[in-house]
Design a protein that fits this description.
By secondary structure, the chain is α/β, with parallel strands linked by helices. It has one domain: Flavodoxin domain (Rossmann fold, 3-Layer(aba) Sandwich), CATH 3.40.50.360. Helices cover about 40% and strands about 20% of the residues. It contains 6 helices and 6 strands; from the N terminus they run βαβαβαβααββα. Strand 1, helix 1 and strand 2 form a beta-alpha-beta unit. Helix 1 packs across helix 6. The protein starts with a strand and ends with a helix. Bound molecules: flavin mononucleotide (FMN). Flavin mononucleotide binds next to helix 1, strand 4 and helix 4.
Amino acid sequence: MKTLIIYDSIFGNTAQAANFLADNLGLDALAKPLAETVAADISVAERVVVATPTHAGRASQPWQNFLKSLPANIWIGKRVAVFSTGLPARDKNFFLKIFLKILGYAAAPTLALLLKKGALLSGEPLDLMVATKQGPLLPGELERLSAWALKLK
Ligand SMILES: Cc1cc2nc3c(=O)[nH]c(=O)nc-3n(C[C@H](O)[C@H](O)[C@H](O)COP(=O)(O)O)c2cc1C
């Protein structure tokens, strides 16, 4: 298996996107829940895609705990890409808009952390949008994910 897509998901939207991506990338990709993932899975994968909901502008707590638990050198030379799911600021009330804008989304800070740990860039960070906290993914987001996947190195 070349690409391991590891996802955390409370309401199922990040899981849906991760499984869609695995289907899109073909036989050499596997989507796996974070709760079932161990460090050795990362070591054997050629490329790792981190998939996380945005929680308070960052990766979910389970992702943060998992990343902290890994051996420091595990990301060195590993190709990585990150996508998140989150809420679009438009159509939200004034305070939520400000909150979302200030906090931002999880993909960029998570990718930056992995690059700092020695990972190699496989693709730009991608933030997919959901309609409400529970979802669903907004129309066109899976197409955006497909287009992103085509550009992964
Ligand atoms: C505790 C919590 C914090 C959240 N914080 C943010 C946030 O800072 N920015 C944002 O865009 N969405 C935020 N959301 C919405 C989630 O991003 C949304 O529920 C998620 O994309 C759905 O993915 P899932 O179905 O895989 O859980 C938050 C949701 C929860 C439950």
